[in-house]
Amino acid sequence: MTSTPKTLFEKVWEAHVVKQDEGAPAILYIDAHLIHEVTSPQAFNMLRERGLRVRRPDRTFATMDHAIPTRPEPPEKWPKDARLQVDTLRRNCEEFGVTLWDIEGPTQGIVHVVGPEMGITHPGSTIVCGDSHTSTHGAFGALAFGIGTSEVGHVLATQTLLQHKPKTFAINVEGELGPGVTAKDIILAIIAKNGVAGGRGYVFEYRGSAIQKLDMAGRMTICNMSIEGGARAGMIAPDETTFAWLKGRPYAPSGDAWDKAVAYWRTLATDEGAMFDKELTITADELVPMVTYGVNPGQGVPITGRVPTLDALEDPGQRRDLLAALEYMGLKEGQPMEGQPIDIVFIGSCTNSRIEDLRMAAQVVKGRKVADGVQALVVPGSKNVKAQAEAEGLDRIFMEAGFEWRNAGCSMCLAMNDDKAGPGQYVASTSNRNFRGRQGPGARTFLMSPLMAAAAAIHGRIIDVRDIL
Amino acid sequence: MKPFTTIYATAAPLRAENVDTDQIIPARYLTAVTRDGMGKGLFAAWRYLPDGRPNPEFVLNLPQYAHAEILISGKNFGSGSSREHAVWALTDYGFRAVIAPNFADIFYNNALKNGLLPIPLSESTVNMLMDMVEEDPSVRIRIDLPGQTVTLPDGQQYAFQIDPYRKQCLIQGLDDLGYLLANLDAIQAYERAWGK
Ligand code: SF4
Predict the structure, then answer these.
(1) Which of A85, A253, B122, B144 is deepest in the core (most CB within 10 A)?
(2) Predicted structure pTM score
C-alpha cells in the first residue's frame, strides 16, 4: 500500500488535530506554550474571571524579556510599568504553577532564544507564544506560530487552539553562500523578493542544499523572519544537525526516550513527491549581504545596490510606500546604500543574538574600534548566551572596541525600555523590524546581518563587510 | 465580547499600505496589565506631535472624522506583531470595523476575537470607498454581517467573505473558549491516545 506523500507541515498538523467539526476550524493541540510579561497578564485575568486553572502547567513556560531593562540596575530603579509587568508575571506563575525563568535566575532571556536552549523546542511539536516571532522554533521542524492574548488564554485553559489549516509554500534555497553572506541575508533576500504579504495564509518550508548546510542558529534566524514575509510559521526539516544540537538539553528526551524520539523525528521530512501550494527558488551563490532602506522588511536591497527610484515601480501603492519610506528615512531615490552614515549599532534580538551571531560580530570587531560618535551595543539573547560569550572572551573583544555589553532581553529591538534611538537617528540593527518608530519615536532602522552591523560600527557608515573580512 | 450584527456609520480613510502593529500602537503603550484605555495609544506616532499635542493634519484628528466607527485602509493591514493591544486600541477608540483589501493573519484573528469586524474588499472597491469618504465625510455606510454585505447610500452593495464559524461567534458575541471547554473530553482522549 502506498500512502499519499505529505509535507513536513501536513505531518505535524495531522498529528495535532484533536477534532474538527463541520464548518469550524480545527481544534489543534499545543505541546508547548511559552509566555512573557507583556502579552500574558490579560490572559491570566481571563482565567481568573472565569474561575479556570492552567490546564497543563507542565507544558507552559514563562520568561521575562520585552519590558525589562538590559542595564545592570536594581529593580527599584526600573520604570514602574516594567516592574509591574514583571511582578504580575511572577504572581501569575506562582498562583497557576507555571515554570518561570526569572530575571533573578540563570536561564532568563528572550523567549525564542531560551525555549530552544532549554530543549523545549522539539521536532514535530506544536509551539505557540503571544509573540509573532514564535516562528523561530520552526527551525527544528516544529509547527510554531504567534498568537494573540485571547488565544494565550485559550491555550492556558485548554492546551488547544482553534485554527484554520494554512496552505504550504516551499522556499528552495540551493547552492553555496559566498564568504560574508549569512542566513540573515537569505531571509532578507527572500522577503525583498516575495514581499511582506507574500506568505499570508501559508506556512513556509525552507528547503534545499543551502538550508541544509546552515547551523541551528542560522536556521532560527531564517524561520524567525517568516512572519516578516507574511507567513505565521516557517519550518525546516529536522536532520542530524538538529538532533546533535538538541541532545542533552534540560528538556530534551533522554535515554531510550531519546532514541525513540529521534526515530520519529526522522520520519517528519517532506515525502518525495509531496505537493506544495506554492514554490519559490533562490540561488544562494547569487546572494550578497542585504540591507533594508525602508520602513518594512521587504524594502531591502543588496549592499551593492541602490534605493529604488520611483519610475522603477509600476504599482501606485508601492510608489506611495516608497515615497513615505524615503521621507521617513531621509534617503534619496537611487542613492547607493554603501556609505550611508549611522548613529547607533544594535546587535541583538531573537533574530541574531545567539552565541554564533556574537562570534560572527566579534570576528569583525576584534582589534578594531567603534567609529567616533557611534553608540554600539551588544545584547545577548539569554543569560546562557551571555555566560558562554564571556567564557570565550567575546565580551572583552566588544568592550575593548567600544561596544556596551548588556544583559539579556529584547532591548532596542522594540524600544519598550529605555534602550531607544532618538528621533532621526540611524540604527544599523540585527533585529527583524524596521517599522517606523520601532526602535524609538522617529528612529530610522537599517536591518542587516551581525557581520554587516559590526562592520557599520567600525566605519560609522554602512559598508560591504566582505571588503574587510 | 460585544455582538456584531449590523452597523450604520461614517468611515475614516487611512491612506497607507502595510499599516503595521507598531503604527497601530507603539510598544511603549503596551505596558498595561489590563485591556483598558489602549485607545490613547492608537496611531500615536501619527496622531500626536512630538510635544504630545494632537497632530492637526492626521485624519483621525479632523473633526469630520471624529465619530467614524469604520476605518478604511490599504493592503496588508495589521502586519507585524501578535499584540492584541492593536485591536484593543482600535475598539477602545471606537472602531467597530476595518475595511481593507486584505489583512495580516494574526491581526485578522485577533480582531474577530474582540468583536472588531475586518472586511476584505477588492483593492478597487477600497480605493473607491476612500475617495468617497474623503470627498464627503458624512457618508454613512451600512455593514450587515448576517448578510455579509457593505451597502453605500446609493444602494450599491458589496459582498464580503467571512468563515461561517467566525461569523456565528461574532453575531452571538461568543468567544472560542466556550467551544473549546465543551470539547474537553476530546482533548483528554487525544492526550491519552498520544501519550501526552
Ligand atoms: S527580540 Fe524583538 S522580535 Fe524578538 S521577541 Fe523580543 S521584541 Fe519580539
Answers:
(1) A85
(2) 0.96
